[in-house]
Amino acid sequence: MPPSVTTSDDLSPTSPVVEARHLVKRYGDTSVLRDVSLSVAEGTVTTIIGASGSGKSTLLRCMNLLERPQQGSLSIADERIRFTEQGPRSSHTDMPLSRHQLQRLRGKVSMVFQQFNLWPHLTVLGNVSEAPVRVKGISRRKANALAAHYLERVGMAERADAYPAFLSGGQQQRVAIARALAMEPEILLFDEPTSALDPERVNEVLGVIRGLADEGRTMLMVTHEMAFAREVSDQIVFLDRGVVGEAGPPERIFEHSDNERCRRFIAPAA
Amino acid sequence: MDFGWLSDPFYQEYLIEGLINTLWLLLVSAIAGLTLAIGMAMARIRGPRPLAWTATAVTSVIRGTPLLVQLFFFYYGVGRLLEGIPGIQDSIFWGLLRDPFFYATLTFTLSVGAYSGEILRGALLSVPPGEREAGRAFGLNPFQVFWRLWLPRAVQLCLPTLTGEMILLLKSIPLVSTIAMMDLLQAANIIRDETFLTYEPLLLIAAVYLLLTIVLTLCLRQVEHHFPGVQPVRRAWRPFGQPRRV
């Protein structure tokens, strides 16, 4: 890593692994994110909540650059990026973000999608081992062992040879979580991981995510499962019409938020 | 019915040469054509505008004109034009350029490229974009996303249609008998001329084509059944439909 200015923050035990500052994301004339800042400490769980259209998913997708903001900066897993109207630039080199740096970042930040997005023409094992083989360049044999390990972790080891179409939604999402874990990422992103599931399948997926939170993994999550968010999160970020309405520990957000709209958003769930 | 000519070694040789040429033409045109189809489809989906426009134009012309006319155009038109280029007859390419096989392959390759390219384009567009996005999100480069995730899925979706295209290609091949190429039909025509038998040689090659189609279908069905992620839908053997409940 090139030398950078070290502030006292960097030395504290909970130095943020994700630090987003003043993110602005527009589609045409519509501003989805208007000056969003967010900080996630290592080993903590942050949940982004908010009404539909508040920009939750967009914010999450900015974290691995599936969405590219037009302004602001992002520091994630030791990658520092500055966003401009012309595209993201590396803060290290002040050059446009290279494909290499983008892929390196994505190798350290894994995502679990609402619609699972498994690859239907690959077996469960193939789905989980694909990225380690192609992106990290590890051998097929090692990747299969790695995949088997993480499939075991999510309770899907016995379905390793099945194709995704033959699994239930909950099983598919657990495979998708194993796929994310197999990259051994520094940060896990969950984009509404239970929203596409039947109610009776939600708990099996939440159980896996709860286990990961207990392991002390750094996670950033968007969810509508309010009770779950309150239970596992160290920090809740309430996003409101593209700005952070309020951020803080779950007790405060859920019980005595200072933000009127946040209280109203929470009320039906509480 | 007189099939006595079948024992004539000269006629046997014609028929075998015709069969080999037919199969060879099928194989080369299928491989080159499907490769071109991938290029045509991607040019139209992702290519820079001039390339996309060219692919669209080629597709429209090839699909909008009869195959026989295209074959004549390349063999009699382009072939004769090339003949006139000074020095070309001494070049190393001349062997290729005066061979009707070259023009037949060219025509069929373009035809498969145009028709299958459109089929593939539709299939590529119907693969849910989330699957590609997942590939990108895990750091796969665009090349890996295309060859490992996008294209295999598209082929999976359009495989039965592509099988049909290959059968149509096989049965377009007799057209080459019109440009003096020894295929099965040409062999049959020679035998018809020399023995004054109208039907028997035609019946023979019809039977051979039927057999080839069946074999090709069975082979491609194996490909379909063994394509990753596709569970073959096997029908139970019920020749008279669903059993009726009494």
From TrEMBL, chain A:
Indicate the family of this protein: Belongs to the ABC transporter superfamily.
Tell me, in one coarse class, where this protein mainly resides. Answer: membrane
A molecular-function term among this protein's GO annotations: ABC-type amino acid transporter activity
Q: Which organism is it from?
A: Halomonas sp. RT37
Q: What is this protein called?
A: Amino acid ABC transporter ATP-binding protein
Q: Where in the cell is it found?
A: Cell inner membrane
Which keywords appear in this protein's UniProt record, sorted alphabetically?
Amino-acid transport, ATP-binding, Cell membrane, Membrane, Nucleotide-binding, Transport
Might you report a single GO cellular component term?
plasma membrane
> What's the domain of life for this entry?
Bacteria
* Keyword Protease among record annotations: no
UniProtKB/TrEMBL annotation, chain B:
- Give the bilayer topology: Multi-pass membrane protein
Query: Pfam families, alphabetically?
Result: BPD_transp_1
Arranged from A to Z, the UniProt key words for this protein are: Amino-acid transport, Cell membrane, Membrane, Transmembrane, Transmembrane helix, Transport
All copies of the ABC transmembrane type-1 domain together span: 19-220
Q: Which InterPro entries match?
A: AA_ABC_transptr_permease_3TM (IPR010065), ArtM/GltK/GlnP/TcyL/YhdX-like (IPR043429), MetI-like (IPR000515), MetI-like_sf (IPR035906)
TM region positions: 20-39, 51-76, 101-120, 202-220
Kindly give the PROSITE patterns that the UniProt entry links to this protein.
ABC_TM1
Transmembrane helix keyword on record: yes
Location relative to the cell: Cell inner membrane; Cell membrane
The Swiss-Prot or TrEMBL record describes its family as follows: Belongs to the binding-protein-dependent transport system permease family. HisMQ subfamily.
What role does it play? Answer: Part of the binding-protein-dependent transport system for glutamine; probably responsible for the translocation of the substrate across the membrane.
Q: What is this protein called?
A: Nickel permease
